[in-house]
Design goal:
41% helix, Beta-Lactamase, globular
């Protein structure tokens, strides 16, 4: 369902492809379902997101307050163990059906099993993950995870809109249209029209499960889920049956759905016979078959992975970890080798939120899910996040709220503890807290543990690159066709004349007592060139087996790629106008390079220096997707390539590197503005403007008075970077820079909003919106009075919010979801 949800949101323009990629990257770091990430990023309103969850899953959406009141009769039928196993929170009982809340990840087969165990029909309503967790905690008297309570507080300030509907009370077969339109008002329902059932019960295909409210083939129109056409109102013959699986629909008309009763009240009797009585509270239900329990992303499962690990072994596991949970648990297990309690807190939304903890037997680890430490109050946690340096010392902050949270991390306030930050792209994404309860934890005890933070960051970065390398594609899942074997007419073959006899003579296969030696030999793997040829001939994502085999044989693959790169291409790059395609769209071998990830960095560095411009171009395209750390200086050299496509790809690749690495790499470009060749100055100045390098301003001012085209290139670059224009006067530019060098570039751009030149004002507002993601109603071509009012709103924002956001934090704005957008390329 996450792939379906992302495809629908991108298709309808609610979320852009780049922002959806950032959402997937955050999901790798923080976990949780995709709808939780989208809500935390503020990309989609909750009501609209719930509607798209309904569209993606085929289930009716739940109202915002659906789990606020829980019917005790419902929790009696579905105890806590069953609710957690099947991810189904019981809300109320209506007639003989149980209304439940479900969320992503969703498996209808599991709900079928639950309906079989209860012997009752279920009425599932889809809801975001965070509301499911709040309802689950409310139903069974638990404390919800701090992450979801924080998200709820931020979202509940928005006014609630009218819910889009409730589940119809009839059952619709998979693949058939829904029989009843969903009303937009919860207090009224549209009665179901009468349908003529088949003349014989034999024509009705009885399913083993009872799930009410499946609604495939629906569309979202004006915020309301409605049938696609009037043809959806009448389902095909045999597609509608009663709410009880054991009683097929009789011949005649199906009565209209009964109105829903309030939670806890008796519902009108249904037309179908009542189901069997539910089991007693806490009773054991007889299992019908092996249960498939869907993996939950919150909390992290620690069973079997909670023993302390030596540092050397932990490094080995991190080097080959394939999922985020393994990475974080490995770091915690290494910390447990030095402490009695170790916990992980993720940093997001201005707070450190507890996720998972490991400890000695007898020390509490469950309370970590309720830990929420704000980072706007002075504390050791805030210091670590701001400085990105480890802390070894007391955790007491003097703030009662924070100290109470420290008590939840192991049940005591230790005399000294370790706070280890996990930094990714110059931003702290997680904190590891470790202590020895009532004993001191000193620096000498954790010296070997400190480098583990860098290994963890590299492992997470590798997972993000691997996830990004898969690219964005619309899922195309083949429909599941159910075949009723009993309804298939077959010709019975009579074998009356055939006489079966036991063969005479000794058995043809010798017995084991005769000393038969049995052996199996694995065949030789096919040549790697044959594997690569198959990848070249395939369509995009069409040779998964060959790609997997090539990745597993990475050493052979890289040796072969050196001589075959870029291989047979699917698309000619000169036939593409506008933005460059993804590497996988150009050719199969380029798709393989992306799959290889960081191991292909040396290959790309070598190929970016090849004499053939096409080889340099495709190598740079791959580097723009992978962004290997050791390729930043080679990419800076490509800024002066003779091929303009290579230059553009190099700029796009460099735009994603941390500012610290980029500052060192652009030294070559800053020096190039002093070249005697105007074309070199043009290439350098264009790259410096595209990458927003303010440190290049002194070098550009130094060549502003040149009489050739180089001086004009420098002037255009200065105007674009500063939103100022002092002509070709070096003296005026230097005087301005001496006064403004301590200001942030955004302040220069805000001043440029009042410039007399239209082009400068337009450049200033476009750059401001791209860097900040803010919009205050300013347009460069408005009347002067309105422009001045808009510029004042920008200035007020900078004083109140922007200055703190851009100058008082170590976060790199290039990696903010609302900050640097993809570089725009002219066709």
């Amino acid at each position: 369902m996450p792939a379906r949800l992302s495809s629908l949101l991108v298709r309808d323009g609610l979320v852009g492809v780049k922002r959806m990629e950032k959402a997937f990257q955050r999901q790798v770091i923080y976990g949780g379902s995709l709808d939780t990430i989208l809500l935390e990023m503020g990309l989609v309103p909750e009501e609209r997101l719930t509607q798209y969850l309904a569209l993606a899953s085929g289930l009716p959406p739940a109202a915002r307050n659906e789990g606020a009141v829980i019917d005790e009769a419902a929790t009696t039928m579905i105890n806590r163990e069953l609710a957690e196993r099947y991810r189904a929170v019981p809300v109320a009982v209506e007639a003989d059906a149980v209304r439940i809340l479900v969320c992503s990840p969703l498996d209808l087969a599991e709900l079928e099993d639950l309906a079989d165990l209860l012997d009752r029909p279920l009425q599932p309503l889809i809801t975001p993950e965070y509301r499911w967790n709040l309802a689950f905690a409310n139903a069974y008297g638990l404390d919800p995870p701090a992450r979801f309570t924080t998200l709820a507080r931020s979202l509940d300030v928005d006014p609630a809109s009218t819910p889009v509907g409730r589940a119809p009370t009839i059952i619709v077969e998979d693949g058939a249209p829904s029989a009843v339109p969903i009303a937009s008002d919860l207090t009224q329902r549209t009665p179901a029209p009468s349908f003529t059932a088949p003349a014989s019960p034999d024509d009705v295909r009885v399913r083993r499960h009872t799930i009410i409210g499946i609604m495939p083939n629906r569309a979202v129109t004006d915020g309301t889920v409605m049938p696609r056409s009037s043809d959806d109102i009448t389902p095909p013959s045999g597609s509608v049956r009663r709410a009880t699986a054991s009683n097929p629909a009789p011949s005649g008309a199906l009565p209209a759905a009964a109105p829903s009763a309030p939670s806890g009240s008796a519902a009108p009797p249904a037309a179908a016979p009542p189901a069997a009585a539910p089991p007693a509270a806490g009773g054991q239900l007889p299992p019908t078959r092996a249960l498939r329990v869907p993996a939950r992303q919150t909390p992290i499962q620690t069973e079997g992975r909670d023993a302390p690990l030596p540092i050397v072994r932990a490094r080995e596991i991190l080097a080959s970890a394939e999922d985020r949970d393994t990475v974080f648990l490995t770091l915690l297990r290494a910390a447990r080798a030095r402490a009695r309690w170790a916990g992980l807190l993720t940093v997001q939304g201005g707070a450190a939120i507890g996720r998972v903890a490991l400890a000695e037997p007898g020390i509490d680890t469950a309370a970590i899910n309720t830990v929420l430490i704000p980072l706007d109050v002075v504390s050791p946690f805030r210091t670590v996040v701001n400085n990105q340096q480890s802390h070894i010392g007391p955790l007491v902050s003097g703030d009662p709220g924070i100290d109470s949270m420290v008590l939840r991390m192991g049940g005591t306030i230790p005399p000294s503890a370790l706070i280890l930050p996990v930094v990714l792209r110059e931003r702290v994404v997680a904190l590891v807290v470790a202590h020895r309860s009532t004993s001191d934890l000193r620096l000498v005890d954790v010296t070997e543990l400190l480098p583990m933070a860098n290994a963890t960051s590299e492992a997470i970065g590798r997972l993000i690159v691997k996830h990004k390398a898969a690219g964005y594609r619309v899922p195309a899942e083949a429909p599941v066709v159910e075949i009723d074997a009993e309804a298939i007419e077959t010709k019975r073959i009579s074998r009356a004349e055939v006489v079966w006899r036991t063969p005479n003579g000794p058995p043809s296969v010798p017995g084991f007592e005769q000393g038969v030696e049995m052996s199996m030999e694995a065949g030789e793997p096919r040549p790697i060139d044959e594997v690569l040829s198959e990848i070249e001939r395939s369509s995009e994502h069409g040779a998964e087996d060959a790609l997997t085999e090539a990745v597993e044989r990475s050493q052979e693959t890289l040796r072969a790629l050196v001589r075959r790169f870029p291989g047979k291409l699917r698309v000619d790059r000169f036939a593409i106008t506008g933005r460059t395609l993804q590497a996988a769209q150009y050719g199969g071998l380029l798709e393989l390079v992306i799959r290889l990830g960081a191991s292909s960095a040396d290959l790309l560095i070598d190929r970016m220096g090849a004499p053939q411009r096409d080889i340099r171009f495709y190598a740079t395209v791959c580097a723009a997707e992978l962004r290997p750390r050791n390729a930043v200086f080679v990419l800076a050299e490509r800024l002066f390539d003779q091929d303009f496509g290579v230059r553009a790809s190099a700029i796009e690749a460099l735009a994603g590197y941390p500012a610290q690495d980029l500052s060192h790499a652009l030294v070559r470009a800053r020096r190039a503005v002093h070249s005697s060749d105007p074309d070199v100055i043009a290439a350098a100045s264009s790259a410096l403007v595209a990458l927003g390098d303010s440190e290049a301003i002194p070098d550009l001012i130094g060549v502003i008075e040149r009489s050739d085209r180089g001086g004009e290139h420098a002037r255009r670059a200065l105007t674009a970077l500063t939103a100022q224009d002092f002509g070709a006067s070096e003296r005026k530019w230097r005087r301005w820079y001496e006064a403004a060098r301590q200001m942030h570039r955004i302040e220069w751009l805000i001043e440029g909003l009042s410039h007399k030149e239209d082009a400068i004002r337009e450049n200033a507002i476009n750059t401001l919106r791209r860097l900040t993601g803010e919009y205050f109603g300013y347009h460069h071509d408005l009347p002067r009075k309105e422009r001045d009012a808009g510029a004042e709103r920008w200035a007020a924002w900078w004083r109140e919010t922007g200055h703190r956001r851009f100058t008082m934090t170590t976060e790199n704005e290039r990696h903010r979801p609302t900050a640097q957008l993809p570089i725009r390329r002219e066709p």
